[in-house]
Write a structure and sequence with these properties.
This protein has 133 residues and is an alpha/beta fold. The chain is 24% helix and 20% strand.
């Protein structure tokens, strides 16, 4: 069974409530196609079928920034420690690690970088603007 990280903590996955509305998006899915259906959605799972497939990063940014999705955004599939810092900067707040990943080692990934040069959801201004202002 895969390990779940939420709120930068390892948590036990519980069965979703019967009222939960969960969407699953694949890398080929267009977030615009579901944008009008986000009301009441409690969680969106974005699948990363291969380690090097980065389309889910763009899906997350679009869901958060363009379509205003505020619920849980979960990265699923081939998620490893190396992805976590960057996934979080794109708007993911839950991460389902692939089987065999050490969750405590994975948590350390959030502290791999003390600064981010690119603008992100956490830091909307790039580093050079944050330091200049």
């Amino acid at each position: 069974m895969a390990t779940l990280i939420k709120g930068r903590r390892v948590v036990a996955e519980s069965a979703p409530s019967p009222d939960a509305r969960i969407l699953r998006l694949e890398p080929t899915d267009d977030p615009a196609a579901v944008a009008g259906q986000l009301d009441g959605v409690t969680r969106i799972d974005v699948n990363f079928p291969k380690f090097g497939d980065g389309r889910g990063y763009s899906i997350a940014r679009l869901l958060r920034e363009r379509y205003g999705y505020k619920g849980e955004l979960r990265a699923v599939g081939q998620i490893t420690r190396d992805h976590l810092f960057f996934l979080e900067s794109c708007g993911f707040d839950a991460f389902e690690l692939r089987a065999g990943e050490d969750p405590h080692e994975a948590l350390a990934a959030f502290n791999d970088f003390s600064e981010s040069y690119q603008a992100s959801l956490k830091y909307p201004q790039p580093l050079f603007r944050r330091r200049a202002g």
